[in-house]
Amino acid sequence: NIPVVAIGKINGPDIADEAIGQRKADFIGMARALIADPDLPQKASSGMVDDIRRCNYCLQDCSEKGVPEIGRCCGVNPFAGNEYSWKVLPATEKKKVLVIGGGPSGIQAALIADKRGHEVELWEQHQLGGQARLSSIAPFKEETADLLRYLKHRLDKSKVLVRSGHPTKVSEIMAKAPDVVIVATGSRPCLLDIPGIDSGLVTDARKVYEDRSVVGQKIVIVGGGDIGCETADWLAGPEREITVVEILPQVLHRMKKIPKERLLSRLSEKGVTIYTETEITGIEKNSVHLKKKDSKEFTVEADNVIFAINAEPEDRLLHKLKGIIKQVMTVGDATSPGNLGSALRSATAAVLNI
Fold first, then answer.
1. What are 304-350's pLDDT values in tens digits?
2. How confident is the model at residue 196 (pLDDT cuts 50, 70, 90)?
3. What Å distances lie between residue 351 and 14, 88, 330, CA to CA?
4. How many CA atoms lie within 13 A of 55 on its CB side?
5. According to the model, what pLDDT value does residue 310 have?
6. Alpha carbons 134 and 192: distance in angstroms, whole number
7. pLDDT, tens digit (0-9, with 9 covering 90-100), for 58-108
8. Shortest CA distance to 139 belongs to which of 19, 16, 245, 272?
9. Is residue 274 helix, strand or coil?
10. Would the CA dihedral through 294, 295, 298, 299 be positive or negative?
11. How far is CA 261 from CA 39, 256, 265, 267, in A?
């Protein structure tokens, strides 16, 4: 006869209904799910389930001290923490807005511009989604795919004209004569200028995810950030020896405590070797040369080397358009590579100032 309230990782009405329907709970409590979408209850009761922006359980922007200058906010809801300063108001002047790049920041920019009453087109040279298409591949990242579903759903319901599968040329942009161009072209991977970098052993983490596979049994991953360690978690298994090389004193230096501890525990269980304060100095056939902070040098066997180091902004289009287009700006990783939350906030802030 004691009422039971269920709470924790309940991010939608389907999970809540199942818990109550199976008499596992009498009430449902939600916390982060309502930060991700404060209108979740109203949308659920109105049958607008596809319009719900679900929490993806990332435990990043909403945990510990959150994000500098904002505090605790949200990785999928850019308005969380900015509710009083950000208002989506009708534009005082309707403009032709062209968004180049259909990743999360590009889609978000197009949606907010459309909501403000601008005439908006979104051009993407490949598939909509950008790097977000690949984010759900690593273990325990399945829920991250829902944000892209949500953005595409909103895009389908908007007035935004979408063109995909066609590379963008400056001449085409000029022919369109936009008032504003938003460059949301993301980032490009970095490699190091070291001996052997052009060898057949080297690949980039993004290509590994695009291909959904990797060859080799002895794999060295250069970069111990989120992508490097999550890639190690994905690829590790009894048939492989995985080594992560990080130049900083610790891996996952940006990841928050709870997901960091869980990921490190999995890497330990899978036998992944981690070298910190270590740099890669060269690559030869079947081996990688490393050097510790104390200058001690050693070699690790490898038949595949995956680079997962910091990316750099893909902002070359910005520089081509400056002085040609009246108003041109970058958003998301094209401004500064970061996480999903920073990309969405960057896009929102930019479009609110058009």
1. 999 999 899 999 999 999 999 999 999 999 999 999 999 999 999 99
2. very high
3. 34, 9, 11
4. 28
5. 85
6. 24
7. 999 999 999 999 999 999 999 999 999 999 999 999 999 999 999 999 999
8. 272
9. strand
10. positive
11. 32, 9, 6, 10
Structure tokens, 260 = 């960091």
CA distance 282 to 291: 10
Q: How far is CA 72 from CA 12, 31, 34, 296, 341, in A?
A: 21, 13, 14, 42, 11
Helix (H, G, I), strand (E, B) or coil at 195: coil
Tens-digit pLDDT profile for residues 237-256: 999 999 999 999 999 999 99
Residue in the structure block whose two tokens are 């161009």: 181
3-state secondary structure of 220: strand
All structural domains of the chain, each given as residue ranges with its CATH number in brackets, are 1-86 (no CATH), 96-188+312-352 (3.40.50.720), 202-307 (3.50.50.60)
In angstroms, rounded to a whole number, what is the distance separating the alpha carbons of residues 174 and 53? 36
Which residues lie below 8 Å from residue 206, measured CB to CB, with a gap of 6+?
Answer: 131, 134, 189
